[in-house]
Predict the structure.
Amino acid sequence: MDDNAADFPSSPTNSVLQELREKAESRRRLVTQSFGDKTPEQMLRLTQDLQVHQIELEMQCEELMLAQQEADHLRAQYVDLYDFAPVGYCTLRPDGTITQLNLRCSQMLGSVRQRLLGRRFGVFVPMAERHRFADFLARIFSSGRQETCELEMRLDNETSFFAQCIGLVIELPEGQPPTHCRVALLDITERRQAVAELATSESRFRTLFEQSADAVLLVRNRYIVDCNEAAMQLAGARHKKDLVGQTLQFNVPEQQPDGRLSQQLIEHHEAVVKAKGAHRFEWYRYNLQGKPLWLEITLTNIAVAGEHLIHAVWRDITEMRAAREHLRAEKEFSESLLDNSIDGIVALDQEGRITAWNREAELYSGLPQAAVLGKSIYSIFPRFDTPDARTVFQQVLQGERIMQSGLPFVSRPGQFDAYLVPLRGTCEESISGVLAVIRDVTERNRLLEEATRLKLNQQQEVLSAILKTQEAERKRIAEALHNGVGQLLYATKLHLERTSANNKREKSLALLDEAIKMTRSISFELTPGILEDFGLKYALEELVRRIPRSSIKAHMNLEGLDEPLPELLELAIYRMLQELFNNIIKHAQAQEVFIHVVREGNQLSISVEDNGQGFDVAQSNAHLHGIGLPGIRNRVGLLGGTLTIDSRPGQGTIVSIELPVK
């Protein structure tokens, strides 16, 4: 190998190639072992040299491939660091032309990279700020140092953002002027907005501090360090220096009106605000002219530039305190008035919570005031928690005055009426709650019931006299018809029967029969002797039997009528059912009628139902005339009962009567 070195010289200065040469020589020894002993010597040497060079080239190729892989890896790292950096990078010429930029920069400028290459960076800067960008670019190329500039960037879609541009020139070999610079773009829109908001907040705070209607002071270590105009007016100061620098004890009496020492109270309030961060209390002091003041003071711990201060708000409550005292006196008077009232008085707020409860209400309910104040009336008296009661409560809150009667209470038996009126505030249009005035009406109701009973007895006596008179007159008329007209007609009939038969005779006899039948019917209706002889049950059955089947079909159900009823009540029931039958036959145009007369103990129920044409009850009540339904209603009223009529046009009629049996 050493003998043939001159034929294939290698570069002795290249250590890498020399190393490759040595590796090739070591491989050649392995290769020459494959030639036989009979190969010519010259051919053998040439082949060996060629094999060494081939191996050397292969090793160089391997090294180049490794170098290429490393270069590709470094290039990928560069691309990752450059293109995918969170900061925008671009390369500019002195005239601002973009020659290179990364992905983030193209995103910030709102376009793809291919469209941005070759464009002027200045077109994205508003016209009003382009001179600042030009100065920035000139400084980069002239100074050779890193330059910074904040610019507003305006994109093609008319959106904008604020960017901080950091530029640095690209250095070239000595003697050559720079031709490019690199610029990094940072989006500082949020930072600019935060700075602007901070400045606005500071300005707003200063404005609030200076123009606040309340007196505002800043205190450090019990010394006033700043105050606003309202604080100066409240303290009676002409200049800010009259207050700034003063201690909190200035113009404060040694003792507060409650006898406590002011110095000790100041220390106490200071400890509370340090522990809780905020504290509110009332304070008595004088202004600079010696005028006494009551102040509501609110203290708040704040930190300004690392310094701990107390933000104090003074509010003049001198007049409010005087009004409060006046109100307290009025409240004591009102409470005295309430407690001495003979009625129970309860006040409720808009949610139904009890706000006032006088002594009489305690006696009515058996509940002390302390047990009910602040609680819901529905929790104290669950029986009032019904939809109807809540509806009444809402009606009063809307301005109505409502009287509720017969309210039961817990411990005191009797009957009570409640007068519910809206509670109005200082503004007459606003309603703040409900006032309930509860009155014991047990004695009043007893007297009313007694008066009603006496009146009812008188009405019943009058009714009895009227009915007896009517029945006596009817009986007299019936006897006259029967004994007079009836006998005469019967005699006429007998006379005509004895005469010769002819058409006139037959017609006369038919007319006389009809007259006799009608006379008997009138006599029966005028005085139902069957009622006196056989009782109400048989008389009602006979009344139904006398109704012609061709005109209407009647069904009757009678229960509990085996025992006789008072004579007046039986007669009234008979006459009312008789009148109802007549009305149904004449006006209802019904095919069927169902009658139920049922006695249960001291109560008698009557129900008459037909399937006729019906009528409008409301309209009928407004135009009641004659002796039909009005007469029935009067009879029921005199007997102390109730009458109910349920009817609609085309759907029949149901008449229900409830009568007491005495």
Remarks:
- The radius of gyration is 59 Å.
- Residues 494 and 509 are 9 Å apart (CA to CA).
- The first strand starts at residue 88 and ends at 92.
